[in-house]
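Section 4.2 – Deliverable D4.2 (structural model, holo form)

The reporting period included a commitment to supply a predicted holo structure for the target in complex with guanosine-5'-triphosphate. Inputs used:
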Amino acid sequence: ERQKHIRNFSIVAHIDHGKSTLADRILEMTDTVSKREMQNQLLDSMDLERERGITIKLNAVELHYHAKNGETYIFHLIDTPGHVDFSYEVSRSLAACEGAVLVVDAAQGVEAQTLANVYLAIDDDLEIVPVINKIDLPSARPEEIRQEIEDVIGLDASEAVLASAKQGIGIEEILEKVVHDVPAPTGDLSAPLKALIFDSVYDDYRGVVLSIRVFEGTVKPGDRIRLMNTETEYEVTEVGVNSPKPLKREVLMAGDVGYLTASIKDIQDTRVGDTVTNADNPAEKVLEGYREMAPMVYSGLYPTDNAKYNDLREALEKLQLNDAALEFEPETSQALGFGFRCGFLGLLHMDVVQERLEREFNMDLITTAPSVTYDVELTDGTHKKVDNPAAMPEASTIKQINEPFVKATIMVPNDYVGSVMELCQRKRGNFLTMDYLDEYRVNVIYEMPLSEIIFDFFDKLKSSTRGYASLDYDLDGTRPSDLVKIDILLNGDKVDALSFISHRQFAAERGRTIASRLKEIIPRQNFEVPIQAAIGAKIVARTNIKAYRKDVTARIHTGDPDRRAKLLEKQKRGKKRMKSVGTVEVPQEAFMAVLKTD
Ligand code: GTP
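Output (C-alpha cells):
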C-alpha cells in the first residue's frame, strides 16, 4: 500500500556544507520542478535567505522518485537551517521524519553543528544516511573525512556516498539509499487522527496554514478537527502538499507530510508543536511536542514613526506564527517611546526578524542593543529578572548580579588551540576540558558568559583561526559577576535605550570606546551635542559632536542634478532607521555601537 512507498527525511549539516544545493539537485533529478522553473536554492524561498545564502526556515516538499527497483516512491524532503541560532527549526523538522541525510563537506570535515545536528537526529532514532559532499574540490579529502565521521561521530561511514551537489555526482545513489535505508512510516490509518504541527504561516486569504506530519488516522476537507493543547475546534477547508507549489489533495493519511487550512483567523489558537486530532473521535494522548526554546538575547524594537505601534504589534503576531522562537511584550522607553521587548535565539535571529518585519510587513524600525537576562538579587532578598539594561535597579539596592553562562564547545585544528584559548580567556572564559578528536583536531570546552558569546565572539573566533574553528554552545546556569550599568548621555540627557551592562573591570574603557564611536555614527546637528558615558553619577568619558557650520546639502546641489535625484530616490526607497531622541537624530547603528567590543 501507499505507506510502504513513503519516505520522510531531512537533510542535516553544518552551515555551508551544501544542504540547499543538494536539495536543489534532488528536486531536479525527480523532475519536481522543470529546468525552466529551477532557481538555485529553490527551497530557500525567502528573499532574505537567497541574498544571504543561508537557510533560515525549514521547508517541506513532496517529490516522486522512480527507483531502480521499478517502483515509485513518495519522498517528503524537509530542508533545515545549519546556523546555531536556528537549531530549534532542525529539531522540529526531524520530529516529522524517519531518516536524515547527513551532509559533511569533504574539505572541512565534521564541524560543531554537524555534531549538534546529527546528535539531534540520533536522539530521535532517525536512520542516518551519511554523504560526503564537495568531492569536486581540489582540497577534498574524502577518505580522511570518512574516517573522521566514524571516529568523531561514531557512525558507520563505510558506505557513505561520495557526492558533489554542485556537479550532480552521487545524487541517485543518495536517493537509492533513502529508499533502502530509511524506514517507511508506520501508523494506523483507521485510528483517530494524530498529526503534529511543525510549522505555520499566516496567509491573508486562507488564514493560518499549518504544516503537519500525520502520524495516525487521516484528515480531509470537511473534517472537524481539534487542536489539542489550545482546545479549539475548526472545520478543515483544504489539505495538500507542497511540490514545491501547494497542490490540493483529497486526503492526508498516516505517514504523510503536508499542509492543512481551516479558516483559522485567530493567530493565538495555533501553536507549533501542538497535536491535531478529530473533534468527534479524539486521540487520547497528545504527541510529544518540542522542547520550548528559551530566547538567549533580548532587545527593544521600536517603530521609527510612533504612530506605527499597533501595526508593529500586528506584524509581530503574524511573524511569531512563522517563527515560534520569537517572543515579545510591550515596553516603553523615555527616548524611543512605545515599542516591544523581543526575545531572540541569537544575533542572526534578531537581524532576520528585523529584516523580515521591514520587508514582509513594511515596517521601519529601530532595534536597541541586545542584552542577556540577568538575575539580580536585591538587598531585600528578592530576585529580579533584568533583560533590559535600562531596567537595572539602583546599584545601592543590589546585593549581587548573576549572569547567564554557557558551556561552549569549540572544535579546532591543533595549531590554533593556543589562539582559541587566548580569546576565550580574554572573554572571561573558564577553561573546562580539552579532548583530542583525532590526531589533528581538538574539542576545547570553556564555560563563558553568554553575553560575551553573543556579541562578536564568533567573528573573532573565525578570524583568529583562519575560519577553521566551529562553535556550539548550551546554556549552563548563572554565576555571580561583578557587573555595572553604563549610561550614555546625549546633550546632557540620559538615553535609556543606549545603556548597557559591562564587567566592572572593562566598564570605563568600554564607556570611552562607545562614546567615541557614537561621535562618528551620530550625524552632526546644527548645534553641538556633548556625549558622555557615566557609571552611576560618575562621568567616565566625554566627547562632543561638533555642530555643522554650512549647509552640507548645498554641496550636492552643485553636483550632477541627475545624481542628486537618484540619491534622493534611493534615500526615499531605503529604510530610514533613524529616530529623534529629544532634539538629536540618532541612526540605527548607534544602538548597536556597544556590540563591537574594541
Ligand atoms: P545553509 O542553508 O546556510 O545551512 O547552507 P547549506 O548547507 O545549505 O549550503 P549551500 O547549499 O548554500 O552551499 C554552500 C556553498 O557551497 C555554496 O556556495 C555552494 O555553491 C557550495 N557547494 C555546495 N555543494 C557543493 C559541491 O558539491 N561542490 C562545491 N565545490 N561547492 C558546493
